[in-house]
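Lay summary. Proteins are chains of building blocks that fold into shapes, and those shapes determine what they do. In this project we predict the shape from the chain. Here is one chain we studied, written as its sequence of building blocks.
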Amino acid sequence: MDRRYVMAGALSLFAMGLSEEALAKLGLSDKDAQSGLRQILKQGTEAAVTRLSQTNGYWNDSAVRIPLPKTLAQTQKLLKPIGQSSVLDDLHLRMNRAAETAAPVAKGLFVDAIQSMTIKDAVGIVKGGNTSGTDYLKKTTTPRLTTAFTPPMQSAMQATGAVDYFDRAIRRNNLQSYFKTDAKTYLGDYAVGLALQGLFHYVGTEEVAIRRDPAKRTTDILKTLFG
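And here is the predicted shape, written in a compact code that computers can read:
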């Protein structure tokens, strides 16, 4: 029998209030299931944060590279053939550098969410799809990640000159009417959203790999639960 269904059954029995003896007959305990799921999510989040916080973590990865806002990207495309796109080229790079600088902030919030996972959460994750653990993290951490990511993202972009470049690009190309907020707020909100999207992309990729690839199950509990 597929161990995932056994684990789901064990968790469901526990959630209904049956005894530990009933769970033991299935060969698993609620703590086993929680521990295994926490290890999956911990391994996935650590891998994602490590990958994206490196220099070029976002920039050299087409799957998560943060593009310029559409209006600026269109302007960049028009200016590049005549050698006038340097401001927007630099802005594009600096946005991604800021995301790489801010990525480590996510680690502590992911750990908090993983440790706060309840039996009910675990049942939902086990019964869900291959990225149900990642979906759980999106639901529980996105508001706090957005709040936590924004100041370091804005600071990093300010420090790398991204905000100044953005202001210059807007003024040089007469695009003021397209933006309702100041450059720092607009650029920060835009980049944070896409930076988090990239982060969850790789958390999900790692979760799927652990569920499917025996070589990714690096602890005894993961080997037992998904072996």
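What the prediction tells us: Residues 25 and 187 are 55 Å apart (CA to CA).
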